[in-house]
Amino acid sequence: MQYDPVKSIFGNLVRGRPWLRRLLYWLLGMMFLREWYVKRALRGLLQGRSGSVEIYDAGMGFGQYTYYISSRFPNARILAVDVKAEQVEDCRQFFAAMGMKQCSFAVEDLLTIQHESRFDLVLSVDVMEHIADDRRVFGNLARSLKPGGVLLVNTPSNLGGSDVHGEAERSFIEEHARAGYGVEEIREKIESAGLHVESITFTYGPLGSIAWRLGIKYPMLLLNATKLLFIVLPFYYMVTLPIVLPLMYLDYVSENKTGTGLLVVARKS
Length: 269
Description:
The protein is α/β, with parallel strands linked by helices. The chain is built from nine helices and seven strands, in the order αααβαβαββαβαβααβ. The relative contact order is 0.15.
């Protein structure tokens, strides 16, 4: 399944409509369990910090994490980047309209960035699985951190991440360069870049994986079949949300021993 065409539909829908973009952010925050985990990690890393905090949103997508950080942590100064110029320009216009002057935006390729000891926090959410030369990117992100700075990575695991359950299967998302990471694989790659991995957390445990299929996978498959099914989605979610949201919450408050997602926190010595 191709994810980018569906993202483009939503991007076109909210373009130039700030209230719709804020609604999209709210919907993403409710429906994607990874956002629950990432935002909790961000709160743990940023709450109580005094003085300016320099943040790099490496692969911002719709910009929802930049919006979340800038809305709750006024001392954060954020550079949000993406390889897609259209998304960058959309975010630049939206954040300017919202008066969020602590945010700046740029088109950047993580394979070629040249930032040196600039950021206190680097955020990479569902980006690394799209990049074949991940070692180079981990190295670039590590160099961009100040001493003591933190890298926060969210990515699929190799335990069913991208909805892959066997070696012969392809990723559910065709744009992925890999199905997911093993714990030791991502630890070795990040530490070989010069960082110390402080924690690796499994997300999307058994309950969260069921919720993802009901809440995200099946609707995405329907939309890839025909965009006319946008009309059906509200009725679909009227039935499934009372099941999906409790499953997500139970996953969120559990200590998963396995899962299809990984949340990694690493620090520069």
